[in-house]
Amino acid sequence: MIRKLFPLIIGCFGLGGGIAAGVMLRPAPAEDRGMTADAEAGDTAAGEYSAADGAAGTETGKGQKDGDLDAGRGEETGAPEYVKLNNQFIVPVVDEGRVASMV
Length: 103
Fold this sequence. Notes:
By secondary structure, the chain is α+β, with helices and mostly antiparallel strands. It has a domain at 1-35. It has helices at 2-24, 37-41, 51-56; strands at 92-95, 98-102. Strand 1 and strand 2 form a beta hairpin. The longest helix is centred in the first third of the chain and has 23 residues, at 2-24. The chain is elongated, with a radius of gyration of 29 Å.
C-alpha cells in the first residue's frame, strides 16, 4: 500500500515546493516599485516630445549622438566583399530540418 502512495506523496511535495517558489519569486507590482503602468510599458503621448529633443542630440555611448542622421553610414557600392581564409571549413546547408548539402 505504501509503495503506491509514496510516488503521490513525493509528487505533492514537489508541486507544493514549485508553487511556493513561484509565489516567493514573483516580481513586485508596479505600484510598489514606484512606477505607473504607463511608465513601465514605455507608452508616451504623441505631444510629449518636441522636435528640438531629437535635433539637440543626446549621447548614445557609441561616440555618436541620436541627432546625427548620417552617422555610421558608409558609401554603398553594392559589390559583395570577400575574405580570404587560411583554413577550409565545411558548412551544412539545412533544408526542412534535413542536411541538403555540404558547402
